[in-house]
Amino acid sequence: MSTVAVVDPASPFPAYRELSDESLSERIDAVRRRMGERLVILGHHYQQDGVIAHADFQGDSYQLSKSAAERAGCEAIVFCGVHFMAETADILANRPEQVAARGGRRVVVVLPDMAAGCSMADMAGIEQVEDAWADLGTVIDTSDVTPVTYINSAASLKAFCGRHGGIVCTSSNARAVLDWAFARSRRVLFFPDQHLGRNTARMMGVPLDEMCVWNPHDPALGGNARGQLEKSRVILWQGHCSVHAMFKPEHVDAMRANLPGVKVLVHPECSMEVVDKADLVGSTSYILKQVEAASPGTTWAIGTELHLVKRLEQNHPEQTIRFLSPVVCMCATMYRIDLAHLCWSLEHLERGKPVNVIRVDDETARWALTALERMLKVS
Ligand code: SF4
Q: Is 119 close to ligand 1, i.e. is its CB under 6 Å away?
């Protein structure tokens, strides 16, 4: 055992900062052993390695929530990701029929650090979306608009989609979801990530002049002329991922100049200008599959979060893997989940005094689940 510091499991978080990584890891492992199958720790692909080492499952936000919800005997989920992911886990793990089957017991969902938010999700607040919907209704018929929210959004936005005949999408199924939406309505309101919306719609053949961007901070119809809104089939929310926005077209040019034969593989949260210059575009799962399936000697430049790319580099020494940007692009909010927060939240959970519990209210959860289940039927 480490001799660095002794911290009572009942201590407030700051005391955990005094523990070494070795001591924190030992204590985390001890809680995992004692709680066994009652506990599931989820680690998002973008999470730092030290935390990922303690995860029962690693994946993207939707895969993780789904796998935890399907795990019988699970009493608590500790989500090493960001806030909206823990909300989705709470909604899926605590479906009313499952809670009833467990005799009313809910699965406790914990986010080790409440400051682990998502800057993209924060770019679309529910009041802003409701205001935009009302404003759109002064120009176009909103009964002919399907709201589509990327899974990277607050539960309240998913619930908005549930109430208004809309749906959730992931970066893996965005195209299938937009197909579903266009089969029901002439137009789509897509939030919060304009890039995923634009890249997907363009791939489906929607021309750029039939898309517009809604700026929630511009009270004059989101910065759009009435004619542009009337013409638009896709209304894109002016939101973006601050990590993927760091990749620039010139980074692709530089990689091609320096690494002959390089394959450029990027996430669809990157801008259209970057996507246009890439060889392959897809979700984190797609990126992993492409690299796993490639022949030894393949050279890649990958445009997605740094921790995922670094892990690919370590796991595939037979290939040459480079990070697309010369500057560090990491998800700073996800990085807030560290061993100290994980250990602190686990020890409190085990003592029956959970901290940072994520609990979506029943009404929001009901409608958000409606939108999530529509997505499940599509893909
Ligand atoms: S990488 Fe971007 S979209 Fe994903 S959690 Fe971080 S800020 Fe949000």
A: yes
